[in-house]
Design brief:
Blueprint: E1 8-13, E2 16-21, H1 32-47, E3 53-58, H2 69-76, H3 81-100, E4 105-109, E5 112-114, H4 115-123, E6 126-130, E7 134-136, H5 151-154, H6 157-166, E8 169-171, H7 172-177, E9 183-185, H8 190-202, H9 206-222, H10 225-241, H11 245-257, H12 259-267
Parallel strand pairs: 2-3, 3-4, 4-6, 5-7, 6-9
Antiparallel strand pairs: 1-2, 7-8
Length: 271
Amino acid sequence: MTRGFETLEIYRDKDCGWVTFCRPKVMNAFDRRQWTELDEALADLERDEAIRCVVLRGSGGNFSSGYDLPAALAELAGVSAEGVREHIRPGNQACWRVWRFRKPVIAAIEGYCLGGAFELSMACDFVLAEEGAMLGEPEGRVAASAPFLITPWVMGLRHAKELLLTGDLLTAVRAERIGLINELCPPGQIESCVRRWARKLGGFSSEVWYANKLTVNRSYEIMGFAAAIAMGEDAFVALSLIQDSFKTELFDRVRRDGFSSAIKWAQTRYE
Protein backbone atom coordinates (compact mmCIF):
# COMPACT_ATOMS: atom_id res chain seq x y z
CA MET A 1 0.00 0.00 0.00
CA THR A 2 1.46 3.34 -1.05
CA ARG A 3 1.13 6.20 1.42
CA GLY A 4 -0.57 9.42 0.35
CA PHE A 5 1.59 12.28 -0.93
CA GLU A 6 0.87 15.97 -1.43
CA THR A 7 3.30 16.59 -4.30
CA LEU A 8 3.38 13.24 -6.09
CA GLU A 9 1.01 10.79 -7.69
CA ILE A 10 1.91 7.08 -7.60
CA TYR A 11 0.34 4.78 -10.17
CA ARG A 12 0.96 1.06 -10.45
CA ASP A 13 0.57 -0.31 -13.97
CA LYS A 14 1.03 -4.06 -13.63
CA ASP A 15 4.68 -4.40 -12.57
CA CYS A 16 5.68 -0.79 -13.34
CA GLY A 17 5.46 2.04 -10.81
CA TRP A 18 4.86 5.54 -12.26
CA VAL A 19 5.87 8.49 -10.06
CA THR A 20 4.44 11.79 -11.30
CA PHE A 21 5.56 15.17 -9.95
CA CYS A 22 2.36 17.12 -9.27
CA ARG A 23 3.18 20.81 -8.89
CA PRO A 24 2.35 21.95 -12.44
CA LYS A 25 1.68 25.58 -11.46
CA VAL A 26 5.39 25.95 -10.69
CA MET A 27 6.56 23.57 -13.46
CA ASN A 28 6.92 20.82 -10.84
CA ALA A 29 9.73 22.70 -9.10
CA PHE A 30 11.13 20.78 -6.15
CA ASP A 31 10.75 22.18 -2.66
CA ARG A 32 11.84 20.31 0.47
CA ARG A 33 8.52 18.46 0.74
CA GLN A 34 8.62 17.17 -2.83
CA TRP A 35 12.22 15.95 -2.53
CA THR A 36 11.35 14.23 0.75
CA GLU A 37 8.21 12.64 -0.65
CA LEU A 38 10.10 11.41 -3.71
CA ASP A 39 12.64 9.69 -1.49
CA GLU A 40 9.85 8.09 0.53
CA ALA A 41 7.93 6.99 -2.57
CA LEU A 42 11.04 5.39 -4.04
CA ALA A 43 11.68 3.54 -0.78
CA ASP A 44 8.11 2.18 -0.91
CA LEU A 45 8.45 1.07 -4.53
CA GLU A 46 11.82 -0.55 -3.90
CA ARG A 47 10.28 -2.68 -1.14
CA ASP A 48 7.27 -3.64 -3.28
CA GLU A 49 8.16 -7.04 -4.75
CA ALA A 50 5.47 -6.70 -7.44
CA ILE A 51 7.21 -3.67 -8.96
CA ARG A 52 9.93 -4.45 -11.51
CA CYS A 53 10.54 -0.96 -12.95
CA VAL A 54 9.97 2.68 -11.90
CA VAL A 55 9.24 5.70 -14.12
CA LEU A 56 9.73 9.33 -13.09
CA ARG A 57 7.76 11.99 -14.97
CA GLY A 58 6.17 15.40 -14.52
CA SER A 59 2.62 16.69 -14.89
CA GLY A 60 1.37 19.61 -16.97
CA GLY A 61 3.76 19.10 -19.88
CA ASN A 62 7.05 19.55 -18.01
CA PHE A 63 9.36 17.15 -16.21
CA SER A 64 10.52 19.78 -13.69
CA SER A 65 12.18 23.19 -13.61
CA GLY A 66 14.48 22.01 -10.80
CA TYR A 67 14.69 23.51 -7.33
CA ASP A 68 11.86 25.85 -6.29
CA LEU A 69 14.02 28.98 -6.25
CA PRO A 70 11.67 31.31 -4.32
CA ALA A 71 11.33 28.66 -1.61
CA ALA A 72 15.09 28.08 -1.68
CA LEU A 73 15.91 31.77 -1.29
CA ALA A 74 13.58 32.00 1.69
CA GLU A 75 15.05 28.88 3.29
CA LEU A 76 18.66 29.94 2.72
CA ALA A 77 18.32 33.52 3.97
CA GLY A 78 20.85 34.10 6.72
CA VAL A 79 21.68 30.42 7.30
CA SER A 80 25.04 28.95 8.24
CA ALA A 81 27.10 26.52 6.18
CA GLU A 82 25.37 23.63 7.95
CA GLY A 83 22.01 25.19 7.11
CA VAL A 84 22.94 25.30 3.42
CA ARG A 85 24.05 21.68 3.55
CA GLU A 86 20.78 20.69 5.19
CA HIS A 87 18.88 22.53 2.45
CA ILE A 88 20.31 20.33 -0.31
CA ARG A 89 20.32 17.10 1.73
CA PRO A 90 16.80 15.87 0.74
CA GLY A 91 17.44 16.42 -2.98
CA ASN A 92 20.82 14.73 -2.96
CA GLN A 93 19.45 11.88 -0.86
CA ALA A 94 16.74 11.29 -3.48
CA CYS A 95 19.33 11.36 -6.29
CA TRP A 96 21.51 8.85 -4.44
CA ARG A 97 18.50 6.59 -3.91
CA VAL A 98 17.86 6.58 -7.66
CA TRP A 99 21.54 5.91 -8.39
CA ARG A 100 21.53 2.93 -5.99
CA PHE A 101 17.98 1.69 -6.74
CA ARG A 102 17.69 -2.06 -7.08
CA LYS A 103 15.25 -1.83 -10.01
CA PRO A 104 15.43 0.00 -13.34
CA VAL A 105 14.53 3.70 -13.10
CA ILE A 106 13.46 5.54 -16.27
CA ALA A 107 13.21 9.32 -16.56
CA ALA A 108 10.39 10.24 -18.98
CA ILE A 109 11.06 13.85 -20.00
CA GLU A 110 8.60 16.25 -21.56
CA GLY A 111 9.01 20.03 -21.68
CA TYR A 112 11.63 21.47 -19.36
CA CYS A 113 14.08 19.41 -17.31
CA LEU A 114 16.40 21.83 -15.51
CA GLY A 115 18.81 22.18 -12.61
CA GLY A 116 18.19 19.73 -9.80
CA ALA A 117 15.67 17.84 -11.94
CA PHE A 118 18.28 17.45 -14.69
CA GLU A 119 20.66 16.00 -12.08
CA LEU A 120 17.91 13.64 -10.90
CA SER A 121 17.26 12.47 -14.47
CA MET A 122 20.96 11.84 -15.04
CA ALA A 123 21.03 9.63 -11.94
CA CYS A 124 18.36 7.43 -13.55
CA ASP A 125 19.35 4.28 -15.41
CA PHE A 126 17.65 5.34 -18.64
CA VAL A 127 16.39 8.63 -20.05
CA LEU A 128 13.66 8.92 -22.67
CA ALA A 129 12.57 12.34 -23.90
CA GLU A 130 10.08 13.87 -26.28
CA GLU A 131 11.69 15.57 -29.25
CA GLY A 132 10.64 19.04 -28.07
CA ALA A 133 12.08 18.76 -24.55
CA MET A 134 14.71 21.18 -23.23
CA LEU A 135 17.40 20.20 -20.73
CA GLY A 136 20.09 22.09 -18.85
CA GLU A 137 21.85 23.37 -15.75
CA PRO A 138 21.15 27.13 -15.51
CA GLU A 139 22.06 27.46 -11.82
CA GLY A 140 25.13 29.56 -12.55
CA ARG A 141 22.93 32.27 -14.04
CA VAL A 142 21.30 32.81 -10.64
CA ALA A 143 24.57 32.74 -8.66
CA ALA A 144 24.28 29.07 -7.67
CA SER A 145 25.81 25.73 -8.67
CA ALA A 146 24.76 22.10 -9.12
CA PRO A 147 24.25 20.46 -5.70
CA PHE A 148 24.44 16.91 -7.16
CA LEU A 149 27.35 17.33 -9.55
CA ILE A 150 26.74 14.37 -11.84
CA THR A 151 27.02 16.33 -15.11
CA PRO A 152 30.80 15.90 -15.66
CA TRP A 153 30.29 12.13 -15.33
CA VAL A 154 27.62 11.73 -18.02
CA MET A 155 29.20 13.78 -20.83
CA GLY A 156 32.51 15.00 -22.13
CA LEU A 157 34.47 17.90 -20.67
CA ARG A 158 33.52 20.44 -23.36
CA HIS A 159 29.79 19.78 -23.09
CA ALA A 160 29.90 19.66 -19.28
CA LYS A 161 31.56 23.08 -19.20
CA GLU A 162 29.05 24.42 -21.71
CA LEU A 163 26.09 23.39 -19.56
CA LEU A 164 27.54 24.30 -16.17
CA LEU A 165 29.49 27.44 -17.07
CA THR A 166 27.15 29.11 -19.59
CA GLY A 167 23.74 27.97 -18.38
CA ASP A 168 22.64 27.39 -21.98
CA LEU A 169 19.90 24.82 -22.53
CA LEU A 170 20.06 21.81 -24.82
CA THR A 171 17.32 20.64 -27.13
CA ALA A 172 16.44 16.99 -26.66
CA VAL A 173 17.76 16.33 -30.17
CA ARG A 174 21.20 17.67 -29.25
CA ALA A 175 21.11 15.99 -25.82
CA GLU A 176 20.51 12.63 -27.53
CA ARG A 177 23.38 13.32 -29.92
CA ILE A 178 25.86 13.85 -27.06
CA GLY A 179 24.70 10.76 -25.17
CA LEU A 180 22.40 12.14 -22.46
CA ILE A 181 19.22 10.51 -23.79
CA ASN A 182 18.65 6.87 -24.69
CA GLU A 183 15.72 7.44 -27.03
CA LEU A 184 13.91 10.40 -28.57
CA CYS A 185 10.15 9.93 -28.67
CA PRO A 186 7.77 11.62 -31.13
CA PRO A 187 5.36 14.16 -29.60
CA GLY A 188 2.62 12.43 -27.64
CA GLN A 189 4.37 9.04 -27.76
CA ILE A 190 6.54 9.07 -24.65
CA GLU A 191 4.24 6.79 -22.63
CA SER A 192 4.26 4.12 -25.33
CA CYS A 193 8.06 4.41 -25.57
CA VAL A 194 8.40 4.03 -21.81
CA ARG A 195 6.06 1.04 -21.70
CA ARG A 196 8.13 -0.68 -24.40
CA TRP A 197 11.31 -0.16 -22.36
CA ALA A 198 9.56 -1.30 -19.16
CA ARG A 199 8.40 -4.54 -20.82
CA LYS A 200 11.94 -5.23 -22.04
CA LEU A 201 13.49 -4.55 -18.64
CA GLY A 202 10.82 -6.63 -16.89
CA GLY A 203 12.12 -9.71 -18.68
CA PHE A 204 15.38 -9.75 -16.72
CA SER A 205 15.97 -11.62 -13.50
CA SER A 206 15.82 -8.90 -10.85
CA GLU A 207 18.92 -10.08 -9.01
CA VAL A 208 20.97 -10.54 -12.18
CA TRP A 209 19.94 -7.11 -13.52
CA TYR A 210 20.83 -5.40 -10.23
CA ALA A 211 24.18 -7.20 -10.04
CA ASN A 212 25.03 -5.90 -13.49
CA LYS A 213 23.92 -2.36 -12.56
CA LEU A 214 26.21 -2.51 -9.55
CA THR A 215 29.21 -3.35 -11.72
CA VAL A 216 28.56 -0.29 -13.90
CA ASN A 217 27.97 2.03 -10.93
CA ARG A 218 30.95 0.70 -9.02
CA SER A 219 33.17 1.35 -12.05
CA TYR A 220 32.30 5.04 -11.76
CA GLU A 221 32.61 5.04 -7.98
CA ILE A 222 36.09 3.52 -8.20
CA MET A 223 37.03 6.45 -10.44
CA GLY A 224 35.86 8.88 -7.77
CA PHE A 225 32.17 9.52 -8.51
CA ALA A 226 31.05 9.67 -4.86
CA ALA A 227 33.97 11.92 -3.89
CA ALA A 228 33.12 14.27 -6.77
CA ILE A 229 29.48 14.49 -5.65
CA ALA A 230 30.67 15.32 -2.13
CA MET A 231 33.00 17.98 -3.55
CA GLY A 232 30.04 19.43 -5.47
CA GLU A 233 28.08 19.68 -2.23
CA ASP A 234 30.99 21.53 -0.62
CA ALA A 235 31.18 23.89 -3.61
CA PHE A 236 27.45 24.61 -3.41
CA VAL A 237 27.77 25.45 0.29
CA ALA A 238 30.78 27.71 -0.30
CA LEU A 239 29.15 29.50 -3.23
CA SER A 240 25.95 30.04 -1.25
CA LEU A 241 27.94 31.95 1.38
CA ILE A 242 29.84 34.15 -1.09
CA GLN A 243 28.55 37.71 -1.35
CA ASP A 244 29.04 39.64 -4.56
CA SER A 245 27.33 42.57 -6.25
CA PHE A 246 25.32 40.47 -8.70
CA LYS A 247 23.92 38.20 -6.03
CA THR A 248 23.07 41.16 -3.79
CA GLU A 249 21.28 42.92 -6.65
CA LEU A 250 19.43 39.75 -7.65
CA PHE A 251 18.17 39.09 -4.13
CA ASP A 252 17.19 42.74 -3.67
CA ARG A 253 15.16 42.57 -6.88
CA VAL A 254 13.47 39.33 -5.74
CA ARG A 255 12.35 41.05 -2.53
CA ARG A 256 11.37 44.31 -4.24
CA ASP A 257 9.95 43.25 -7.62
CA GLY A 258 9.17 39.56 -7.23
CA PHE A 259 10.93 36.44 -8.43
CA SER A 260 9.78 36.48 -12.06
CA SER A 261 10.89 40.08 -12.61
CA ALA A 262 14.25 39.43 -10.94
CA ILE A 263 14.95 36.41 -13.13
CA LYS A 264 14.10 38.37 -16.29
CA TRP A 265 16.58 41.05 -15.16
CA ALA A 266 19.26 38.40 -14.55
CA GLN A 267 18.71 36.86 -17.98
CA THR A 268 19.48 40.15 -19.73
CA ARG A 269 23.10 39.77 -18.64
CA TYR A 270 23.51 36.71 -20.89
CA GLU A 271 21.79 37.88 -24.06
